[in-house]
Amino acid sequence: MYRLPSLSARTARTLLPRAAPSTVRCIAPAAVQQQTRHAHAISNPTLANIEKRWEGMPPQEQADLWMALRDRMKVDWNEMTVQEKKAAYWIAFGPHGPRAQTPPGEGRQVFLYTMLGIGAAGALFGFTRYFARPPPRTMTKEYQEATNEYLRGLNVEPISGLSSDGYTGPGQVQSKPAASQK
């Protein structure tokens, strides 16, 4: 037995929890027993035409039927009826819910709404461009060529840039001439 340093042995026995031997004997046989399931067969009228009735059934009834089939599937499958096997397969993998067939014409409707959205975006773009101010004076080819000359005069980037020997790049020029912008 473990002894606490500052307590007497009698005090330690009352403070330390210990399981009663009778409790251990009661738990042991229960742990050894194997669990067996005895699910009753589901009636054929309940499973008849499940493919046609499933979508119209209330959600609670669907859940109850699925739970009953789930319990039934836990036993040996050789004990299940053919109706139960078919119903379990159809409920698990059938074309209902997210696996249902798309309604006819849905692709055309998606295409038309997409084109409507693109057309609205184009109209909004054209409307804003029509009423927008003209481009600033710094966005002309002439202004940008003058900026190149100014930067060469200051000897900006003399090694590999605008002011280097043999430079042939556009420099700051990126716009059309002023006459063609209007």
What would you say this structure looks like, in words?
There is one protein chain. The protein is mainly alpha-helical. Helices cover 53% and strands 0% of the residues. The protein has helices at residues 9-15, 21-32, 44-47, 50-53, 59-73, 82-93, 106-130, 141-153, 178-181. Helix 5 (59-73) crosses helix 6. It is elongated and about 95 Å long.
Please tag this protein with its features.
elongated, 182 residues, mainly alpha
Please give the largest β-sheet.
none
Strand content: under 5%
Distance between the termini: 101 Å
Q: Give the ordered list of helices and strands.
A: HHHHHHHHH
List the helices and strands and how they pair.
Elements: H1 9-15, H2 21-32, H3 44-47, H4 50-53, H5 59-73, H6 82-93, H7 106-130, H8 141-153, H9 178-181
Helix pairs in contact: 5-6
Briefly, what is this?
The protein has 182 residues and is mostly helical. The protein has 9 helices and no strands.
